[in-house]
Write a structure and sequence with these properties.
Chain lengths: 342, 323
């Protein structure tokens, strides 16, 4: 194992592995933990693009949603093997990521963000209006997947099994990401982030590196998406909405860009905050005599304000601000020339 | 996934009535009635929508040229216009007072936004602006939901009835909307070409530093322009409200269209934005005659992807803007 995957990470993962043995981890909390870790994976995969390569993707929801839909479509049609579902997701998301990456990596900065956004909207529109895939309701009421093909006893059907599934995926994807960014490949990505032209002059095929990291990042998000319907038993087009892509960026920014661990924390924070606020805010509203339905989205207000404050005061994110400056701070794309942001 | 789905009334209409309505109304092209009864009104609809979309996109592109910020919260300013309008109408019972007051107040909100949040980002990368305004959009949307609730609302058309026009019957309010939007676009054009203030804004787009050197208070130019673009978005939101429904998520869908318009027109090009807005308005309107809403949306995206590949800078984009 490389140096950066130190004993602290092993300790964290060990703690996560024994977490369900504590009595306060009820089924509800385990499900919440599932969501938190799942979006942690999505945010971490986005961090490969944002934090390490300096490409801000505003279309990450498409990878997540495509993965979810490919699993849901297979489960709906009676294919119950987990491995087939994951394999199909990898195939579908990989092809889509190649397509988007091919066009989007020709452009930088805002254009990259907007191109990924538009491509994701195409995917959203497709699933939103295709009645074969449930239209706006999505695919509902799916059955559990089986780890061993043809063995119903191995179904992933309890919150505990779901939790260990997402933990395993998180562990493997984190391992992959950490190895990747510490490798030569990762160093080239950072070089592209710092100065794309200089990386090109050094002889690196910048476009190919960008395309590769697009596909890898998309695949990781797609894997997370592929296990999404296994707990929630559904896949809806709302998962593909561009605001979900924005939320992924929020998770990365809150946790700290270019740290890998930060975005996982950011994703978990986002989900837990969302769940707690949307559970308790309506109750509080009701108690003081206000309409309860107004409190449901209150977390977006909190998250929005936190995001604004972080962008202004702590552009490196929570973890980035805590961590001593080991090397040059991660940046988003090339610096703008001085003068009015232009 | 946690949102009310942003479905505009236009789209809902298409879903409920569209297929049946369209099946009946698909005669051959040699039929004069078809042109008068279907094609012409639809083209006018497209023009009306495109002109209002142009108001939204103009503000977006000026801010982009000036501050280098792709303002995602622009859609929420559009939405705020409609809600402030509802508040003013509730107090005064007059749409016309709202048309004056709501944009003014949203302009103040815009100015505050610029001074408090965007000013600290002037010398950072443009992408931070994109992320920041996403946060602002989330917050504004929720504030509105906290105050007014998430239910759909309507503003009644201040001008009712229809008039005969070119052999068809066309609603008066839409004609008013078209006239108002075109007049506003003309006024904006005159502002940018004939007035000193407009020329200063254009100079700031060209080279803010040089303008600063010439003794112009550039931060004030930025703030006022941002306020102006916010007011313009609010006006568009209020004027479109009687045609669409008013919900806190109404900006989410519009901002995507406005983005597409700005990119198509060429980042930072004012004329390009207006042209692209009309093109998109017409395209959306006419395509929906022959296609279901899914294909309409995908066709619009396809146009944009095609233009970006063939002409990466859009219709009139300048070289080197954020590349």
């Amino acid at each position: 194992m490389t140096g950066r995957f130190g004993w602290r990470m092993w300790a964290v993962f060990a703690a996560l592995a024994v977490l369900p043995t504590f009595p306060f981890m009820t089924g509800y909390r385990l499900n919440l933990a599932f969501d938190a870790l799942l979006f942690g994976i999505v945010a971490m995969s986005l961090d490969l693009l944002m934090g390490y390569t300096g490409l801000v993707s505003f279309g990450h929801a498409a990878f997540l949603g495509l993965g979810a839909y490919s699993t849901a479509i297979l489960l709906e049609r009676g294919v119950r093997s987990l491995w087939l579902c994951l394999g199909a997701a990898v195939l579908v998301v990989g092809l889509y990521a190649l397509l988007v990456g091919y066009f989007a990596t020709t452009r930088r900065g805002i254009y990259f963000a907007l191109l990924t956004l538009i491509f994701a909207e195409v995917v959203y529109t497709f699933f939103r209006y295709t009645m074969a895939f449930g239209g706006s309701d999505g695919i509902q009421g799916l059955e559990a997947a089986w780890v061993l093909p043809g063995v119903p006893a191995s179904a992933i059907d309890s919150p505990l099994k779901n939790y260990y599934l997402v933990l395993a995926v998180l562990f493997l994807t984190y391992l992959a990401c950490r190895t990747l960014v510490d490798s030569h490949f990762g160093k080239v990505l950072i070089a592209i982030r710092e100065n794309e032209d200089r990386a090109r002059f050094l002889g690196y095929n910048v476009r190919r590196y960008k395309l590769a990291v697009c596909v890898i990042s998309g695949l990781l998000a797609g894997l997370a998406g592929a296990i999404y319907p296994i707990r929630l038993a559904n896949a809806t087009p709302d998962l593909l909405l561009w605001t979900v892509s924005g939320e992924a960026i929020v998770m990365v920014m809150i946790g700290g860009i270019g740290t890998l661990v930060g975005p996982i924390v950011g994703g978990a924070f986002f989900i837990v905050l969302q769940e707690e606020v949307s559970t308790y805010a309506p109750k509080i509203y009701q108690a003081i005599g206000l309409s309860a339905d107004k409190g449901v989205g209150l977390h977006f207000l909190i998250i929005g304000v936190i995001l604004v404050l972080i962008v202004i005061f702590m552009p490196k994110g929570l973890l980035g601000a805590l961590r001593p400056a080991r090397r040059r701070e991660p940046r988003l794309a090339a610096p703008a020339p001085a003068g009015g942001g232009k | 996934m946690y949102y009310n789905r942003p479905v505009s009334s236009r789209r809902r209409f298409e879903e409920e009535l569209g297929p049946a309505w369209r099946r009946e109304a698909r005669p051959s092209f040699d039929n004069m009635d078809y042109i008068v009864a279907i094609l012409l009104p639809q083209m006018l609809h497209g023009l009306v929508f495109g002109a209002t979309l142009g108001l939204l996109a103009l503000g977006l592109t000026v801010i982009f040229g000036l501050l280098g910020v792709m303002n995602i919260a622009h859609g929420e300013l559009f939405m705020l216009g409609a809600y402030f309008g509802i508040a003013v109408i509730g107090l005064t019972q007059s749409f016309w007072v709202a048309v004056i007051l709501a944009p003014l107040h949203v302009g103040v909100v815009g100015a505050l936004m610029e001074v408090l949040t965007l000013r600290p980002l002037y010398r950072r990368e443009p992408l931070y602006g994109l992320i920041l305004t996403f946060g602002l959009a989330l917050a504004l949307r929720e504030i509105v939901r906290e105050i007014w609730g998430g239910d759909m609302r309507r503003i009644m058309e201040p001008i009712t009835g229809s008039v005969p026009l070119l052999g068809m019957i066309y609603p008066r309010y839409r004609l008013f909307l078209l006239a108002a939007s075109l007049l506003l676009l003309l006024a904006i054009w005159l502002f940018f070409t004939k007035t000193r203030a407009g020329i200063i804004v254009r100079a700031a787009v060209q080279d803010a530093e040089m303008l600063d050197g010439l003794g112009v208070n550039v931060p004030r130019v930025f703030t006022l322009t941002f306020a102006g673009s916010a007011a313009l978005a609010a006006l568009a939101g209020l004027l479109l409200a009687p045609i669409f429904t008013v919900v806190p998520t109404m900006g989410v869908e519009m901002i995507l269209l406005a983005f597409i318009v700005v990119i198509l027109g060429g980042m930072g090009s004012l004329g390009g934005s207006v042209l692209a807005a009309l093109v998109i308005g017409e395209a959306q309107s006419l395509f929906s005659l022959w296609m279901n809403p899914q294909r309409v949306a995908i066709a619009i995206f396809a146009i944009m992807i095609f233009v970006l590949i063939v002409r990466p800078r859009g219709f009139f984009g300048r070289e080197g803007v954020l590349e």
